[in-house]
Amino acid sequence: MSITHASFVTLPVADQDRALRFYRDVLGFEVTADRETPQGRWLQVAPEGAQTVFTLSGPGMGGFEPGSARGIMLVTTDVDADCARLAAAGAQVRGPDDVPWGRMASFTDPDGNGLLLLTEKEGF
Q1: pTM here?
Q2: Quick check: 57 and 12 in contact, CB under 8 A?
Q3: Residue percentage of the chain with pLDDT more than 70
């Protein structure tokens, strides 16, 4: 096998503009692609410098069900501050809690896609 990385993760959304506001304005992601295709709008976002991007897949793009993505782990240097920012923006946040591998929380985007935040324990 010669796989080097994941290109993108699909996040099914009902409203791409609403999702873009959340991922760009709340999470601070950058827009890496935003163009029209014959199948619909191809919209991708990512944290600065990330190798893997997130495709905000709207209606008609692949038949995905909005809110069906789960378990996507985002690593952060300050899970507590990020949780406070998410809660202030109206996101449903659970945690953060101490776990053997660090400090972790979960939240949902406006469509109900489930994401996790982790500040990794040093040396784990």
Answers
A1: 0.92
A2: yes
A3: 100
